[in-house]
Each structure stands twice: as structure tokens, then as C-alpha cells.
Amino acid sequence: MPLTIRLDTRLGPSVARFLEAHLQDMRAVSPPESKHALDLDGLRAPDITFWTVHRDDALVGCGALKALDPAHGEIKSMRIDAACRGQGIGSTLLEHIEREARRRGYLRLSLETGAMDFFRPARALYARHGFTPCPPFAAYRPDPNSVFLTKSLADTP
User: Which interval of the chain is the signal sequence (predicted)?
Assistant: First the structure.
């Protein structure tokens, strides 16, 4: 079934429920001081662009792009419904976000994800797409529960 990626500025009840599941997962595996997932208010910030992924009318994923500066963006709130993981939806969404980052003229795209086993599939996805480890960026600090990844957009098409 085809996927549709939609810019979502409304962040309605279905998104709220979807994100609550994301936040519950983060609370279950990450200590509070290491939880960097955004809630609805955080995703409504003016420096955030948020997309939802739909298969037919079902919400199956989401992701956001945060402007850090004119040349650097951060991927936030990437989540794929647990029942839909392993079907290429994460790759499709990540490629969409990367295209938007390039369109904006960003030279670098970075993200923070967890260091725990729960996040291993996410780290593998990012590695397949050319993200490599980096030091903490923006306002992040070193954290043994976090993995920081980045990708140069300047040297790849």
C-alpha cells in the first residue's frame, strides 16, 4: 500500500495519541535526564517542521526537522508504529526529511538517539543512510544514554 507523507501543522488528537506512545517508550527505557523527545508543544515551535506518514488513512509514522542554524538541521521525533517497523517506512521518511534539509540549503543534518538496545534498530537505520557518530551538538551535553549522529549534506547528492 502506498505511503503519504503530509506536512502536519494541526497536530490533532491522532498525532497526540501517536506521540504519547512514543513518549511512553522513551520514559520506559530512558532516565528522565536523558529524554529528549518533544511533546506536542515542543513540536509546535516555529523552528520545527513536522510530518506524519499515512498508509491509507492510518497514521503509521512521524518525524520532524528542527532548524539549528542556516546550515544545520536536527531530526526530531522520528517514530514508526511498532506494527509497521521493518517495512521501509523509516527509510522513506528519513529520505523525505533529508530532501527538505537539502532544499533549505543545510550542509549538515544531525540527531540524538538512545544508546540502549531498544534504539539499536534506529541507529542501524541512520547508519544505513550515512549518519556517523559525532560529539554532542547544539544544547546537548555528553550523556552515556545518548548517541549523537551526523551526516554531511555538502558532499553527497
Answer: none
- For residue 156, pLDDT beyond 70: no
| Confidence (pTM) | 0.93
Which one, of 91, 109, 101, 112, lies nearest residue 152 by Cα? 109
Longest Cα–Cα distance of the chain, Å, equals 41
Instruction: Classify 3-152 by CATH class.
Output: alpha beta
Q: Are 146 and 36 in contact (CB under 8 A)?
A: yes
Q: Which residues of 62-99 are buried (b: 16+ CB within 10 A; e: fewer)?
A: bbbbbbbeeebbbbbbbbbbeebbebebbeebbebbbe
pLDDT band at 35 (very low <50, low <70, confident <90, very high): confident
Determine how many CB atoms are found less than 10 A away from the CB of residue 140. Answer: 14
d(CA 110, CA 66): 10
Length of the chain: 157
